[in-house]
């Protein structure tokens, strides 16, 4: 299976275009993500040409780089998928507390789903949100999109996606309690 770490966002809410390289728990967020997901397959880093520091980090750590347009998460996901093929799991590069156990549980649940794509979502305070974690079993487009099934899990700190200064403060606080 291919693993694509998505690292091409603008980082505007965090005021840092190289957001995946922000240190959390003593190392760049993307480094933690890569160390967790590399056990599940060949790892790629999807980013844009404007993120030269992310590109350099990925190459220095032995990951192939997929250059995407940076138009949107879903468009970059599809561009990456067309390059590496299926099956591919997509994981955000800014989830510094993600664990192998969480990924293993997701893949186990996804094994029972027949949809071409399975997306992990979370429920928190009565709201459902995207985690950015998806598994594409096969490339099958319907009206320009890949049909998918959502698996919903209760929110845990493992799913923390660092998008804002508040998210970063929470991640750093959680590091101290590990």
TrEMBL record:
Residues 4-123 form the MobA-like NTP transferase domain. The keyword Disulfide bond does not apply. GO terms for molecular function: nucleotidyltransferase activity. Keywords: Nucleotidyltransferase, Transferase. The keyword Nucleotidyltransferase applies. PANTHER family: MOLYBDENUM COFACTOR GUANYLYLTRANSFERASE (PTHR19136). This is GTP:adenosylcobinamide-phosphate guanylyltransferase-like protein. The lineage of its organism: Archaea, Thermoproteota, Thermoprotei, Thermoproteales, Thermoproteaceae.
């Amino acid at each position: 299976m291919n693993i694509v770490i998505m690292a091409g966002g603008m980082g505007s809410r965090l005021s840092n275009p190289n957001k995946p390289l922000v240190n959390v728990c003593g190392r760049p967020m993307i480094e933690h993500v890569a160390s967790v997901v590399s056990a599940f397959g060949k790892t790629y880093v999807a980013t844009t040409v404007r993120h030269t520091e992310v590109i350099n980090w990925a190459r220095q750590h032995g990951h192939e780089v997929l250059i995407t347009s940076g138009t949107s998460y879903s468009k970059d996901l599809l561009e990456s998928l067309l390059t590496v093929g299926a099956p591919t799991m997509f994981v955000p590069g800014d989830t510094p507390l993600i664990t192998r156990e969480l990924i293993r549980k997701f893949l186990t649940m996804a094994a029972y789903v027949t949809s071409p794509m399975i997306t992990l979502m979370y429920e928190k305070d009565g709201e459902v949100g995207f985690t950015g974690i998806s598994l594409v079993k096969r490339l099958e487009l319907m009206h320009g999109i890949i049909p998918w099934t959502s698996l919903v899990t209760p929110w845990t700190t493992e799913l923390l996606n660092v998008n804002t200064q508040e998210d970063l403060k929470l991640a750093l606080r959680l590091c101290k309690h590990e």
